[in-house]
Specification:
It is built from six helices and no strands. It is mostly helical. α4 packs across α6. The radius of gyration is 18 Å and the shape is globular.
Length: 156
């Protein structure tokens, strides 16, 4: 039976293969990032960097491939990530105060979202975001159309 570090190492190797990067390097960087956050060093900066820079790099690599499956994975990640960041804008101050090790939990959550075999972003999208979007899609479309018309009217 594989332990959590072995599973994590395996995931980073898969990610490295897909992106053409050394999986061991990804593993070391992510472990160091999580350790720094647990120790309280540059929590916000490291967490945001981990959630943006690595996925951005892998997204660019995915766009350069012929297949579309990896594109879908990263588009799903960015959709979930942006939804999380917007929610965090409203509730982040409260969460930081009431949840011990908030940034450590956040960085682990973000890594879970983007590691390919965990498919965390797909899980969140399928179970929460897709249903929510379907429920409000008509309202969003109507609001966008109103803004578009108002903007066109102001521009002419």
């Amino acid at each position: 039976k594989m332990g959590i570090f072995e599973k994590f190492s395996e995931q980073t190797k898969i990610l490295g293969q897909k992106a053409g990067v050394n999986g061991n390097l990804i593993y070391i960087i992510l472990i160091a990032a999580v350790a720094c956050v647990f120790l309280g060093f540059f929590e916000e900066e490291i967490t945001l960097t981990t959630g943006v820079l690595l996925p951005a790099h892998f997204s660019l690599k995915a766009l350069a491939t012929e297949g579309k499956e990896d594109d879908k994975q990263w588009l799903t990640y960015w959709t979930v990530f942006s939804s999380f960041i917007v929610a965090e804008m409203f509730f982040g101050i409260i969460l930081v105060e009431i949840i011990p090790f908030y940034f450590a939990i956040k960085i682990v959550f973000l890594v879970w979202l983007f590691l390919p075999n965990f498919e965390g972003a797909t899980f969140i999208y399928d179970t929460i975001l897709a249903r929510f979007f379907k429920a409000v899609e008509k309202d969003i479309d109507e609001t966008v159309e109103k803004v578009k018309k108002a903007t066109q009217k102001k521009m002419s």
